[in-house]
Specification:
Layout (H helix, E strand, L loop, with lengths): L6 E4 L2 E4 L20 E4 L7 E4 L8 H17 L1 E4 L2 E3 L8 E5 L2 E4 L2 E4 L10 E5 L2 E8 L6 H10 L2 E6 L9 H9 L5 E5 L1 H11 L3 E8 L2 E5 L6 E3 L2 E5 L10 E5 L8 E4 L4 H10 L3 E3 L2
Parallel strand pairs: 11-12
Antiparallel strand pairs: 1-2, 3-4, 5-8, 6-7, 7-20, 9-10, 10-11, 12-13, 14-15, 14-19, 15-17, 16-17, 18-19
Helix pairs in contact: 1-3
Length: 283
């Protein structure tokens, strides 16, 4: 959906299109470039602001949404967060629920305040921790910024508003921020990172052996299959779908030469899962 500019600045305050007169009588300016706006309130298209006698500002929509989001969050001091769901192996295995979606109540909020070498749209502080919030309509987080966020170690969500089916206003944006999670995605979650780090420490490298047309992993710690008293597993049928398969390795000629398995530490892994109050969710 091509979202039209729903907000403008009037007397230094952010206002929505429904609260002003049509045309130049709206007395509004662009929240980003501060050029004069005209309120288009016709019968055919969705009511919206447009720049008067100047090109449309590329940052006007997202800047206005950042300001509106901050005002809403600052007023209510809470936000609804999506569930944190992970896997010990990214490609296969059952999902693990680290915590369900929840509403957090926070203490402080900052708009576009620099933190190290990035400038998040919104920074929330709660219980001595920081949560970064990115609000995206046309400009989404790139790999470089995601990498910087991971290196900094701050939990971050991205709120994607590009596929909304209705026009944005204060009420719809408030509903998204305070009550809904379908437009919110974890870019990085510190609890998930800590959990996987603990699991990773138990990783043991086992070689993948080709026998005729089958790929075997000998000495399977879970003893999924036995041959003459020796435990083994099929790489495809057993390992990649096992909850204790952490990763695989390859080289220039083969995509899979070894697996990283934590099955030998099943008891410790189960204790870590219990410590994080995590629970398996079947796919």
């Amino acid at each position: 959906m091509d979202i039209k500019l729903p907000f403008g600045l009037k007397d230094g305050q952010l206002v929505e299109i429904s609260g002003v007169e049509r045309g130049l009588n709206c007395g509004c300016f662009c929240p980003s470039c501060h050029q004069k706006l005209i309120a288009r309130k016709g019968d055919k298209s969705i009511h919206h602001f447009a720049h008067y006698n100047s090109q449309e500002c590329s940052k006007s929509l997202e800047t206005s949404l950042h300001i509106a989001a901050k005002e809403i969050l600052e007023k209510h001091k809470k936000i609804r967060l999506p569930a944190v769901i992970t896997k010990m192996c990214e490609a296969h295995g059952d999902q693990l629920l680290l915590f369900d979606e929840q509403t957090i109540v926070f203490d402080k909020i900052y708009l576009e305040k620099r933190i190290d070498d990035i400038k998040p749209d919104v920074i929330i502080e709660y219980n001595g921790r920081k949560l970064l919030v990115e609000i995206a309509v046309t400009h989404f987080l790139d790999k470089e910024k995601k990498s910087k966020i991971r290196n900094l170690g701050y939990s971050t969500i991205e709120i994607k508003l590009n596929d909304l089916k209705k026009q944005l206003n204060f009420h719809s944006l408030q509903d998204i921020l305070l009550h809904d999670v379908k437009n919110k995605f974890w870019v990085y979650n510190a609890k998930e990172h800590s959990f996987l780090d603990e699991i990773r420490n138990f990783g043991k490298t086992l070689k993948i052996i080709k026998r005729k047309i089958a790929l075997h992993v000998d000495y399977c710690p879970l003893k999924l299959r036995m041959w003459k008293g020796k435990p083994y597993a099929y790489f495809i049928d057993d390992c990649v779908y096992c909850n204790y398969f952490f990763d695989s390795k390859g080289n220039e000629t083969q995509s899979h030469t070894h697996i990283i398995c934590v099955g030998h530490a099943k008891k410790q892994i189960d204790q870590i899962i219990k410590k994080y109050n995590a629970s398996f969710i079947s796919n």
